[in-house]
Amino acid sequence: MSNLPPQPLSPLDGRYRSAVVELGEHLSEAGLNRARVHVEVEWLIAQTDRGFFGASALTDDQKAALRAVVTDFAQADIDELAELEATTRHDVKAVEYYVRRRLSSLGLDAIAELTHFACTSEDINNLSYAVTVRDAVADAWLPKFDAVIDALADLARAHRDDAMLSRTHGQPATPSTMGKELAVFVHRLRRIRSQVIDTEYLGKFSGATGTFAAHLVAAPDASWPDISREFVESLGLTWNPLTTQIESHDWQAELYARISHANRVLHNLATDIWTYISLGYFRQIPQAGATGSSTMPHKINPIRFENAEANLELSSAVLDSLAATLVTSRLQRDLTDSSAQRNIGLGLGHSMLALDNIRRGLGEIDLDRDALAADLDANWEILGEAIQTVVRAEVVAGRSSISDPYAMLKELTRGRRVGAAELAEFVSGLDIGDEAKQRLLALTPGGYTGLAGDLVDRI
């Protein structure tokens, strides 16, 4: 039907590859296989260090040569593993045979039977996924997440005192500052960041049903739980002592829920920035050579934030599905997690693409202070809140006999525009103390921002 060469099915591997390429280092099939080789090699070294079944400890050079199998893992190794799996029809068994070949080439055939010793495939897989996901989050996702937080924090500080009309329920409301509104997102995202950082990456290493049964038969006197714990911790993971054949994946559900939560906060940010652009609060900075519309030359569309919205939704859909699926395994093992986990990179990738778009979008907007000021000046009625609050305080203090301050201001302002002069005339006629009256007469919409600027300083 077509002369097209083979094409990537996912836009993450095609159009948007440059934004997510770091993930492939960890969460691709090749990255997973390299991690599997890493776990197998480290288990070999751990066994020989303990002299299992009379095996001699490896020399430093031999250990270095084995570890180089991991660090030098390249395309030829990827191809070799693919050929092995084509025969074994089992990905982890292919890794075992690959490692045995390397042992033979290094003259280490004497310890070949220690390869994958007492392991079920999931002993290797769960540790490999924990290592790859941990490193993908730390090396790929988190730097892009931090870049967005840093850009937001810079904008919040820059616009610390730039008063703007708020819009609760989409209607004119008590003013804030742009800096304070952006600082809210900084605070929210930093909380989630700390939760992501605190994630425990768990690992199990206890055999076919988590009982150390084969281990104990082979070496009855060994302290297998201690050996397992030390090995898992040597990989930088937290040991899970009680599992079935698989590690229970609760840590994955927790992590993906946290990243999905971050996605939703970022989605809220993207829709708010989009709305501020629509209101004219932010101008979009023209990018040289860029086209906004194929027919309307004047347009600059907020595509960075719209792209981010879509990708954040896709990411959360995948991550939410993973979190729901991975915590259930029938009895001691079923294979649903195996297929599901191959999509971890997809979930993180769409989040990373969104982060890239948000960071770039934040760098392509400029605050229009004149638009903010004009909007404030057109809505003096928002000071009704301040006036009725001051009047109520004056009543309590015995300096006013007004019976229902709220109703009085409601009658004046609800559903209608009230200008500066009309409001000043109203305040001048109020039955309140002179100091309070002068305070209200000096108040403007742009000056009615409370402690917004000070709150920005908290970030």
Automatic annotation (TrEMBL):
Pathway entry: Purine metabolism; AMP biosynthesis via de novo pathway; AMP from IMP: step 2/2; Purine metabolism; IMP biosynthesis via de novo pathway; 5-amino-1-(5-phospho-D-ribosyl)imidazole-4-carboxamide from 5-amino-1-(5-phospho-D-ribosyl)imidazole-4-carboxylate: step 2/2
Domain Adenylosuccinate lyase PurB C-terminal: start-end pairs: 329-449
Signal peptide interval: none
Domain of life of the source: Bacteria
Listed Pfam families: ASL_C, Lyase_1
Domain Fumarate lyase N-terminal positions: 56-308
Function, as annotated: Catalyzes two reactions in de novo purine nucleotide biosynthesis. Catalyzes the breakdown of 5-aminoimidazole- (N-succinylocarboxamide) ribotide (SAICAR or 2-[5-amino-1-(5-phospho-beta-D-ribosyl)imidazole-4-carboxamido]succinate) to 5-aminoimidazole-4-carboxamide ribotide (AICAR or 5-amino-1-(5-phospho-beta-D-ribosyl)imidazole-4-carboxamide) and fumarate, and of adenylosuccinate (ADS or N(6)-(1,2-dicarboxyethyl)-AMP) to adenosine monophosphate (AMP) and fumarate.
The protein's name: Adenylosuccinate lyase
